[in-house]
Amino acid sequence: MNKKNWKDISTIKKQGINYLVEGNGKIKKFKPWLGDIFSFLYDRIMEKSIFPKLFNGDISKHFEILKREFKDIHDKEVLEIATGSGTISEVLPNDNKYVGIDISKGLLKKAYSRFKAKGFQNFELYNTSAEILPFDENTFDFAVCNLSLNFFDNIELLLHDLRRMLKTNSTFFCSVPIPERKPEKSKIHGTLYSEKELNEIFAKYNFDFESKPYENGAILYFTAILKDK
């Protein structure tokens, strides 16, 4: 993958993390949800607050589902949108070539240590948003987005880029809270799309949408296979 050629986006690598470089030569900055200063609390917040209180779900069951879904993925080019602290390294086989993006430098630093500890020999991390994806066409065999799709300002722009970056018949796997499963008094941030709305949006970009029969609070698990370009 030649990361610097697509749309003339250039990158610089520091301490294992790739940063985008703007036209003035400065590293592009992003504003994380919690701020990088709180990145060390991220996993605890997800386990103790987000899952039980907002999702009415079980984080252990969440990772059991991911492990089941990812166990047969081997020797693939994998893209994760919103890497977070790199917990996918706990469930994704380490013989894959992994590329992850996130707007939080602090979380990416945690992710870097995790992927190293889990024995991944081929992985790259990028400090960028879902709206700026500097990767070439027909690069990835599999893409993942866990619990972040509701935070993106422009989901259709993301799907446009996924269609560009994924190979035909590749799979996008996603977990996301949806309004029809949301606990009544729960205030989940971002834009919540219903299962029907997600199906319609993905179909618009030639993805074959399929919901997974898992029940875990507010979370919908689904796959979307890119049928053609």
Q: What does this entry show, briefly?
A:
It contains five helices and nine strands; from the N terminus they run E-E-H-H-E-E-H-E-E-H-E-H-E-E.
Describe this structure in words.
It is a single chain. With 229 residues, the chain is α/β, with parallel strands linked by helices. It has one domain: Vaccinia Virus protein VP39 (Rossmann fold, 3-Layer(aba) Sandwich), CATH 3.40.50. It has five helices and nine strands, in the order ββααββαββαβαββ. The chain has helices at 42-55, 59-70, 105-117, 155-165, 195-204; strands at residues 10-14, 17-21, 77-81, 97-102, 123-127, 140-146, 166-177, 207-211, 219-226. The chain has a nine-stranded mixed beta sheet, sandwiched between helices. β4, α3 and β5 form a beta-alpha-beta unit. The model is unreliable at 1-5 (pLDDT under 50).
